[in-house]
Design brief:
Helix content is 46%, strand content 17%. The protein is α+β, with helices and mostly antiparallel strands. Strands 2-9-4-7-10 form a 5-stranded antiparallel beta sheet. A 3-stranded antiparallel beta sheet has the order 6-5-8, with no helix packed on it. The N terminus is likely disordered.
């Protein structure tokens, strides 16, 4: 089987040498021109990025959605999303980054379960009221203060302030994305979706995921259909189509390379699959989407 290289680069977490933190950073900008050439190209990040925009103009993309920058907005990304900025512009606000390893620390374990981290609705943007913005900015100031005070208690204080920030943002997340209190069935749906995110390149059948979850394929299909209104196989197909769209839009890789990257042994079958799911061939989609956004 042809093994294609990673089509969209994934940028690793960069350690802040000034403070010696290898899993967490926070940066404040007061009108600086944030210019990093690599960010103007499609890429993924191997870490979490959260950005509070107090004031900024311009536009960036998360996957295939464009976001016009709005004052008093909080943007958040998870490691799998494809990001690109259109141009460097003066920026007032703060952005913080942290790794999976940071979340794996014992004092941070509960943070993994928060909606802003789980992101079940694949969101990216939270609009803040004036009161929300004031609270967020004050909490970020506390995080910034601890970040520049290395010592025995630094990690605990950073974790404590970050827990307050992420919990507050999670409440806004559930309000803005209309989430309900999760039942056992909803938790199963979320777990299924998380497993698809991990394994969609290798596993294309519902039965394979049912085995990973130690339940029957019939029960999994029944719960997923009832909770989401879509069949279990549709969730797998939609994730494959999403990644195919990303690669067709952001890369120049051939259709054969994209097919193999997504786990299709036969490029012609991938072509038929994509057309069945979207109504157009991969080549037609690539031509149309690039013409639309040129």
């Amino acid at each position: 089987m042809l093994k294609s290289p990673q089509p969209v680069p994934t940028y690793p977490f960069e350690r802040d040498e000034a403070v010696g933190n290898s899993a967490f950073t926070i940066t404040r900008s007061e009108g600086g021109l944030v210019y990093e050439e690599d960010l103007l190209k499609p890429h993924r990040k191997a870490y979490y990025l959260l950005v509070f925009v107090k004031h900024n103009s311009g536009r960036h993309w998360a996957d295939m959605t464009a976001y016009e920058h709005v004052d008093n907005t909080f943007y958040f990304t998870t490691p799998h999303q494809v990001l690109v900025k259109e141009e460097p512009t003066p920026f007032w606000g703060s952005y913080l980054t942290f790794t999976n390893e940071f979340l794996a620390l014992q004092q941070n374990a509960a943070l993994r379960e928060l909606p802003i981290i789980q992101n079940p609705y694949n969101g990216h943007e939270l609009r803040l009221t004036a009161a929300d913005a004031a609270f967020v900015e004050d909490t970020l100031d506390k995080i910034q203060g601890e970040y520049t005070r290395p010592g025995e208690w630094q990690h605990r204080m950073l974790s404590a302030h970050l827990a307050v920030l992420l919990t507050y943002l999670s409440r806004l997340y559930t309000q803005q994305f209309a989430a309900d209190e999760p039942s056992a069935e909803k938790l199963l749906l979320k777990t299924y979706q998380a497993k698809i995110e991990e394994c969609y390149r290798e596993l294309h059948e519902v039965g394979a995921y049912a085995s990973l979850l130690h339940i029957s394929a019939g029960h999994l299909s029944e719960v997923v259909k009832a909770q989401s209104g879509k069949s279990a196989i549709k969730h797998i197909h939609e994730r494959l189509v999403l990644e195919a769209r990303r690669l067709l839009f952001y890369t120049t890789y051939s259709l054969k390379e994209i097919a193999f990257d997504l786990g299709f042994a036969d490029a012609s079958y991938f072509n038929r699959f994509f057309k069945r799911e979207t109504g157009v061939t991969p080549a037609e989609y690539r031509a149309t989407i690039r013409e639309m956004y040129q």
